[in-house]
Amino acid sequence: MNAIVTAVSGSSRHSFSKPNQNSIHLLAGLGIEGDAHLGTTVKHRSRVAKDPTQPNLRQVHLIHAELFDELASKGFAVEAGEMGENVTTRGIDLLSLPAGARLMLGESAVIEVTGLRNPCVQIDRFQKGLMKAVLGKDEQGNVVRKSGIMAIVLEGGEVRPGDAIRVELPDGPHQPLEVV
Fold this sequence. Notes:
It is a single chain. The protein is an alpha+beta fold and 180 residues long. It has a single domain, classed as M1 Pyruvate Kinase, Domain 3 (Beta Barrel). The chain contains 4 helices and 13 strands. The chain has an 8-stranded mixed β-sheet with strand order 2-1-6-5-11-8-7-13. The protein is globular.
């Protein structure tokens, strides 16, 4: 199966869920035009409170639609954009990408993966028990965070549902994703 964008979402407000859009416009070095998290420095409220001068490594949030399938099998109903992601994908294992992987979205947008999203209490406020459902354990007992990945925008462009996603891995050795 080819990797594709299944939905795009954005919001000018700092809200947990983001409404789906027909398209989003990525701006190099900034993020998604009109989105509350647009900028070169952190925009997530908890990070702004700690140090508002930190670089914004969370300009674009991506979640794989396969997570929604998994959650549905556990009794949760979650749709694209409802967990705050900007880009919903299908056919790509986002969580296994290394730091620095580049994703080409649509005709011209290029983003660089910076790390994992750390699920927070807002997930349980959205649906009780959802936080536990987006956390798992690997064979060694390490926590696995399934609530998506974060990226920065290297090259701008329009991104729409149905757009192809092409992955370019960084030169090795590959670094696993950590929370950003």
